Amino acid sequence: MSRRREFLSAQGRLVMLLSAALATLFLLSLVTGANPLPLWRALHESLADTPTVLSLILTEVRLPRSLIALVAGASLGLGGALLQGLLRNPLASPGLIGSASGASLGAVSVLYFGLGAGFWAALPLGGMSGALLAMLLVYLLAGRDASIVTLILAGVAINATMLALISLLLNLAPSPYAVQEMVLWMLGSVANHGMDAFWIMLPGTLLGWLLALGSGRALDALTLGEETARSMGVDLVRLRWRLFLAVALTVGSAVSITGSIGFVGLVVPHLLRPLVGYMPGRLLPVSALGGGLMLLLADMAVRLLPAGTEIKVGVITSLVGAPFFLYLILKTRRVQP
Amino acid sequence: MSPARSYRIATLLLLLLSAAAPTRAASPPGRVVSTNLCTDQLLLLLADERQIASVTHLAREPNSSFMAEAARGYPVNHDRVEELLALQPDLVVTGGHARTGTAALLDRLGYRVEHFPDAADLEGIRANIRRMASLLGRRARGEAVIGRMQRRIIAATTALPEKPLSALFYQPRGYTSGSGTLHDLALHLSGWRNVAAEEGIRGFAPIDLERVLLARPVQLFTSTYAPGTDSLAQRQLRHPALRQLTAARPMIEIGYRYWICGGPMIAEAVERLARARRDR
């Protein structure tokens, strides 16, 4: 009992620490950019009636950008933790099992073809349905008790299909700009959005977070095996649907605004897992915070690049994440020869 | 015009005349095929209609082509080798950054292929017009086109307000035109300062929205394309911060067809930019 209390407080400390780091980084993100922004003066001017350049930059450029990075990163981190817990597979993540590319496909088919034009939720709904569809396909392809390799292969196949379809749709889209946006949907970016984009992605995200909330205990039980989890009263079919839906809602909403940003969902849970005693339940909030941190940091790095360049934030996360992915593969190979 | 500048033009002219000299002996080509939008427009502008065997499908597209109306009467090609061979050209004109595979292949097959570099200034535009006119055996027509272009530019830019004001081309996807572009040239001719060039941007490159807001250009210009379609690029022009910036002075649209290719249409773009400067 005393050990449990100690663990909880350690968990509490970790959550507090990450939250504090996230809050600090968020403020830093508001003052970081190609041009210095005196935060205090900008805040002051934002409260005045007539918008000034400083207040516009703060409230219409940096605030939405930072909020979107934070929320999308949190969703990706959480999605990774949920999928790794549910599938009991260290390589499961939104990027690898198709939810991100599926969400891109869904968003692309809505945006460029004027489906649901004027209906604000059309874009995230497209992303969510795409994400759900892709995940179900991977799950069906790989089978319920898929080995790591089978799951990843199924993910690779679905990802390839989704990317091919995205490319096809962008080539067929009536807008001449569509083809050039391929990179954006593949690598992702949080730049150049207004607050409206943030409000659009928020409802689905919150709904997904709520769905994920409280699944921690079931995920903890699942580490003991499906039989044991079932004997402990976990309804596996319901849990699976609930979490797939949660990932579809959060990742679908995020990706429909930012494009699919790779590796956040893979790297973050892995880095944080040792800190929560390898308990998937405890990993959920921590991964969400960590995901927000990682994406905010990556986006701040992108912003400091010189003018005239256009590096997507996904380039940074992938450059960090891909070597990490390799390391994970080598590690799993050592464990199961 | 500065002496150095006129000297440059004079040397260029001499060079071009000497380069074009051998072609004068042969009779002018009778089946000219163009495989690039820019050479399409030069061809349609300068050639006798019987000389034109084919232009690209883009030449008919009114958003891209200044000569869309004139292009209607001619067969179109899509820069595919089979197509071009069937046309039996005695001269193939092409342009763009790199020599396309098609043109290189035709060259190897023994066809006469002439490549036109993209023109990014008035000298380049004049040189391209003169070269095309000379290839077609229509020098007088070429000089007439150049003369009309120069007269229009001079008429539009005399009696402009003294002080240049800041302006910026903001395109879908947050791109702008820095130094070394036709936009930059036209802005300078018509009494504007190009904020993008002053920010150190060269060529066609993205500009940070924050920089645009901070520089606070007096006037934003844009060249949108394909109205009625949607993409993230086009949504960028509707960014709330940009809406606030342009609330008092809406963006002025100056279509893409003025800028895709360097040509005499630059005169009309300058006229429109100068009008905007005078209204200011």
Automatic annotation (TrEMBL), chain A:
Record-level GO cellular component terms: plasma membrane
Domain of life where this protein originates: Bacteria
Localization in the cell: Cell membrane
A biological process term (GO) from this entry: siderophore-iron import into cell
Broad class of the protein's primary localization: membrane
The entry's keywords: Cell membrane, Membrane, Transmembrane, Transmembrane helix, Transport
Official protein name in the record: ABC transporter permease
Species of origin: Candidatus Sedimenticola endophacoides
Automatic annotation (TrEMBL), chain B:
Organism annotation: Candidatus Sedimenticola endophacoides
Record domain Fe/B12 periplasmic-binding: where: 31-280
Signal peptide positions on this chain: 1-25
Key word Signal present: yes
Pfam families with a match to the protein in the record: Peripla_BP_2
Protein name: Cobalamin ABC transporter substrate-binding protein
Keyword Signal included in the entry's annotation: yes
Gene3D superfamilies: Nitrogenase molybdenum iron protein domain
Keywords: Signal
InterPro entries for this protein: ABC_Transporter_SBP, ABC_transptr_periplasmic_BD
Domain of life: Bacteria
